[in-house]
Amino acid sequence: MGASNSGILSKLLQRKWRAWLVLALFVGSALVGWRLWPHLALAEGVAPPLAGTMVDGAVFDLKRETGKPVLVYFWASWCPECHVQQSVIDSLTRDNTVVTVAMQSGAEPEVRKYLGQNGLRWRVLNDIDGAITKAWAVRGVPVMFIVDGQGNMRFRKPGISSVMSMRVRLWFAEHF
What we know:
alpha/beta; two-stranded antiparallel ribbon; Glutaredoxin; elongated
């Protein structure tokens, strides 16, 4: 009787491990898909139009930014990852061409207030109606694009990134 009980127990444990393995594979696949989903649909190829009046009143047109790469950064005031990314973007604005796009962050006075409260001196297009976000196929924030001097997208990076990683990408976009 003891031998048959141990055989049954062994079969149950094997089934349990298989069930756990299937569950782990399913959860792992779902997490990978969840992280890749924003990246898969992002615009690629020639950069979509990016033009308008900045929140500071200056006029911007990506087509006029030729010769050097441009970092285009999509963010939102309510986004915790975007808050973490602020110092990276600040550092990059010191010696690179950077334009940011505020998504779902309120009217221009609200965006200016947010920038002031956080000590940010970014060039910001406020995408109040979502037209820019739609053209660039952005589904979530933060997202960074590097557009080379000829207007082609060279890198697309959802999520947070380090200063060094973005500097290397900007360098490659300029030299290769």
